[in-house]
Amino acid sequence: MPNRDGTGPLGRGSIGRGRQAGGLRQGGTKECTCPACGYKEQHTRGIPCIQKKCPKCGTPMKGVFCS
Q: What is the mean pLDDT of residues 31-55?
């Protein structure tokens, strides 16, 4: 647990990494792909691919990250 000044326990200066500083987010996706049948569609900004279902087979879609 960090101290009140933002340093880690024992005062080693380990400030926690949030979403923007760390690897939790890899950037936007350019398309959503079905892992079961391979169907692809353009990603809609603000809607995670995992919340979409493939129109062909009903499997939850996955994001393809920009490189």
A: 93
